[in-house]
Predict the structure.
Amino acid sequence: MMLDGKHILLIIGGGIAAFKSLDLIRRLRERGAAVTPVLTKAGEEFVTPLSVSALAGSKLYRDLFDLGDEAEMGHIQLSRVADLVVVAPATADLMSKMAQGVANDLASTLLLATDTPVMIAPAMNVRMWDHPATQRNLVTLRGDDIAVVGPNDGDMACGEFGPGRMAEPMEIVTAIQAHFADGPLTGKRILVTSGPTHEPIDPVRYIANRSSGAQGTALATALAALGAHVVFVTGPADVPPPSGVEVIKVQTAHQMLNAVEGALPADAAVFAAAVADWRVSSASDRKLKKSKDGLPVLEFAENPDILKTVAQMGKGRPKLVVGFAAETNDVIENATAKRKRKGCDWIVANDVSPETGIMGGSENAVTLISDAGAEGWPRMSKTDVATQLAARIAQALT
Ligand code: C5P
């Protein structure tokens, strides 16, 4: 089984999503993992110690100053016996304590004392998630090499809608499996951009393109399956982001560039996003109205070229930089010129003329252009393109 012999210390924080952690315990144990649960005081308000302990088939730890626990296994040791510490739900409060190094209860003390990798599944109200303080803490935690799963967008128990829902148990399981995946890309950090970007015209309208995000998503999944830590920077795509990768959602090209720069350094970067070439230079902060004076005139400004920026960054450049080229004619000539112009190592070129059905479809026919020349691949599913490309990336990095 995928998680045989793995020992997970699961810290359950105090949020309504704690009920999902009961299911998470079951799913982890089904896959062969041993789960030692820790329940915070706030967590006890949402799930009972008895159900946590019964499902885990393990003693539950709750109190920093429990003499019995301390005699059995000191809290410092408890923090280190596991192969992975998972915090689910990770409340705003727990994230804040972790970012600041506060240790004033069992959970936060374990998190400060541990030398084991840590993964968090945040869950909180939308406003709390969006608050600059939480976003600052998130950046700090990422910088401390803490893996983050979710949160997802959706309806929340508090009646609001937006990001803040804890990732589903199976998404957390997939992320945990990816963490332990032992493949040629284990220990490598790979950045993948995906999806379209949305460039606002006014608060309700935007410019976009027909990219579904399917190829980027398949590629991120394939890279994670080979053991890579994937940072997936995605615009508003049709397909949901993959599990088992770190997801950063953006809307505009500028936001995508910021997210990419924030996610570096990386061993490789793959730019599968269909970034809008132009944005409206002064997007209106009010909805444009029909007017008798005629039609609105939109002025455009050029967006930053993210691939080119990273490919030509000099110090700190990923070892392998891969771009995509969607062309409708003279595919190889155009893509070869694009590889030179952008300064990237490889271009994955494809013909997106409407008659190919590739844009938004499930298949792709690509040509891999590198300094070795152009290599045409047969038409195959986007998943197969992703698997083969991931294997080539693994070869190039090892
Ligand atoms: O120049 P063109 O858009 O055809 O180049 C496509 C490649 O460049 C893709 O890999 C795409 O992700 C990347 N790109 C980018 N930022 C832009 C435009 C394109 O990263 N602003």
Summary: The mean pLDDT is 92. The chain has 14 helices and 21 strands. The domain at 1-180 is CATH 3.40.50.1950 (Rossmann fold). The pocket of cytidine-5'-monophosphate is lined by residues 193, 253, 271-273, 275, 303-307, 323-325 (CB under 6 Å).
